[in-house]
From TrEMBL:
Domain Phosphoacetylglucosamine mutase AMG1: 185-288, 302-441
GO biological process, one term: UDP-N-acetylglucosamine biosynthetic process
Keywords: Carbohydrate metabolism, Cell wall biogenesis/degradation, Isomerase, Magnesium, Metal-binding, Phosphoprotein
Residues annotated to bind Mg(2+): 66, 281, 283, 285
Recorded catalytic activity of this chain's protein: N-acetyl-alpha-D-glucosamine 1-phosphate = N-acetyl-D-glucosamine 6-phosphate
InterPro entries on file: A-D-PHexomutase_a/b/a-I, A-D-PHexomutase_a/b/a-I/II/III, A-D-PHexomutase_C, A-D-PHexomutase_C_sf, A-D-PHexomutase_CS, AMG1_II, AMG1_III, PAGM
Cofactor(s) the record lists: Mg(2+)
Name of this chain's protein: Phosphoacetylglucosamine mutase
Signal peptide: none
Cofactor note: Binds 1 Mg(2+) ion per subunit.
CDD domains found in the cross-reference section: PGM3
Positions in coiled-coil regions: none
């Protein structure tokens, strides 16, 4: 009862934005930062409940709005294995976030009963934030909610989103056979650096890599990582766009989302022809590569490219290690994946591929059904998961030759280099560097593996985006009635035409994706479908 009083008292310090309905979407709650106080408070309450429900396992709270503008912010919960919050709990989060402050303590108590939380259990929460100016105020709110509900917590200050996911997983596996690493930032860097050095044995990185850090938290963290890497494998990283002092610089004219959606390098880029470049997003969970070719044309290597590169390399190592018959490797994509990448996976890599709904939690879930699940969104968010069976095979296979031994060791090191908890731009970057070094490839050879179909991605502002409902893999509109038929008709009018529309989970828009054999056709298809939607 005194907890209820404490909740009420703390909650009433804040004011709920009038008339606003909150929803835990693709990436948690995300909006203008000044609207977030009561949402963060609710998330703090829920984090404690989630931990109690899971017998005191550590739960993560990340305060970030990723690639969105500097004045936005957001919050999401991290489950014990470093995964996104379980789907059913998103509904509870939404419920608590919309509860009136006067009755939030009752709603909290009711919810605890409804989901049968043993309130005698301990509750433990770790949290961190990106570099946004609003972050410190929001941490204050989170603090108030955790304190009112007597939750044990650790503030990890500034971190990339994947670093916090890593910490959560480490905390919960400490002392078990699934120990994931040292639950500290330094532990994170050391795990990456140690495994990187192992897989780089005998090969060398060619040329330097310029990394655009979106002026976000990835900048200072990448600099820390570089110290620990200590130029291993000859990796020479040039850090650019790492201004975290000027709050407006975040994601402005730079970063992975800018590069992917504008299909161009940041205007500030000084990279020369064929220079290898990469961009992180504001919380360093997305990564894209790019370069300018001999004709001065911008060339993007997006999440689809990273997925195909990773899948082909792991497939190659598995073959060399003589275990390819025992490992089923699958590639999970969303409908935003370029059709040419899906064809390449099916026809050249000869691996199974499937589409899931947008949002990494769906991809992650699907990936876990394979021994090796490679998943990336086209925007550069993704990772690779290894099943327990895969780990057993990799660890226990007796090598019959030095080559086989080395392949097995490389595979094992890859399982450590890859942040299996969640898509992680820093870890993914090292993965790409390792693979390019092994193949002796420049980004040009990487690009040469297949040719992307020209594509477009547009945002359409509509009156009510909630009427746009899609099938399981987002490709078919089930509502408004009849619209899909019209889109289908347009698709047939263009060579290799494919287009779909879905409501964004993070912005108040409907997204329209279109691809076709030529740029002109893709643009026209997009115009047609955009016209139908808007
Ligand atoms: P929405 O706004 O639901 O399309 C976007 C991305 C997702 C995912 C989330 C989370 C696209 C087309 N959509 O979701 O893939 O990354 O943001 O950040 O890139
Ligand atoms: Zn992000």
């Amino acid at each position: 009862e005194h907890i209820k009083t404490a909740i009420s008292k703390a909650a009433l310090q804040y004011t709920k934005p009038e008339g606003k309905v909150f929803e835990y979407g693709t990436a948690g709650f995300r909006m203008k930062a000044d609207l977030l106080n009561t949402v963060i408070f609710a998330v703090g309450l829920l984090a404690g409940l989630r931990s109690k429900k899971l017998s005191g396992q550590w739960i993560g709270v990340m305060i970030t709005a990723s690639h969105n503008p500097a004045e936005d912010n957001g919050v999401k919960l991290v489950d014990p294995m470093g995964e996104m919050l379980e789907g059913a709990w998103e509904v509870y989060a939404t419920k608590l976030a919309n509860a009136p402050l006067e009755s939030i303590a009752e709603v909290y108590e009711q919810l605890a009963k409804e989901i049968e939380v043993d309130m005698g259990n301990p509750a433990r929460v770790v949290f961190a934030r990106d570099t946004r100016a609003s972050g410190s105020r929001l941490v204050g709110v989170l603090n108030a909610a955790l304190t009112a509900t007597e939750v044990e917590f650790i503030d990890f200050k500034y971190m990339t989103t994947p670093q916090l996911h890593y910490i959560v997983r480490c905390k919960n596996t400490l002392g078990t056979q699934y120990e994931y690493g040292e639950p500290s930032e330094q532990g994170y860097y050391e795990k990456l650096a140690t495994s990187f050095k192992k897989v780089m044995r005998g090969v060398k990185v060619q040329g330097s890599l310029t990394v655009d850090c979106a002026n976000g938290v990835g900048g200072p963290k990448l600099r820390e990582l570089i110290k620990v890497l200590d130029a291993a494998g000859g990796l020479d990283i040039k850090v650019v766009n790492d201004d975290v002092i000027n709050p407006d610089a975040l994601n402005f004219n730079c970063g992975a989302d800018y590069v992917k959606t504008k299909q161009r390098a940041p205007p500030s880029s000084k990279a020369g022809v064929l220079d290898r470049c990469a961009s992180l997003d504001g919380d360093a969970d997305r990564l894209v590569y790019y370069f300018v070719d001999e004709t001065n044309t911008f060339r993007l290597l997006d999440g689809d490219r990273i997925a195909t590169l990773a899948a082909s390399f792991i497939g190659y190592l598995a073959q060399k290690a003589g275990i390819s018959q025992k490992l089923n490797i699958g590639v999970i994509q969303t409908a935003y994946a370029n059709g040419a990448s899906s064809d390449y996976i099916k026809n050249v890599l000869k691996l199974p591929t499937e589409y899931t709904r947008t949002g990494v939690k769906h991809l992650h879930h699907a990936a876990l059904r394979y021994d090796v699940g490679v998943y990336f969104e086209a925007n550069g968010h993704g990772t690779v998961t290894f099943s327990e069976n895969a780990m057993k095979i990799i660890r226990n296979t007796e090598p019959q030759s030095p080559a086989q031994k080395q392949a097995l060791e490389s595979l094992l090191a890859l399982t450590e280099l890859i942040n299996q908890a969640v898509g992680d731009a820093l870890s993914d970057m090292l993965l790409v560097e390792v693979i390019l070094a092994h193949k002796g490839w420049s980004p040009k050879e990487w690009l040469g593996t297949y040719t992307d179909l020209p594509s477009t991605l547009d945002r359409v502002v509509v009156k009510d985006r909630s009427i746009f409902k899609t099938s399981d893999d987002d490709t078919i509109l089930t509502s408004p009635a009849g619209l899909q038929g019209e889109i289908d008709t347009f698709m047939l009018m263009f060579n290799k035409g494919r287009s779909f529309a879905r409501a964004s989970g993070t912005e108040d828009v409907v997204r329209v994706y279109a691809e076709a054999a030529t740029r002109g056709e893709a643009i026209n298809l997009s115009k047609a479908v955009t016209g139908l939607v808007g």
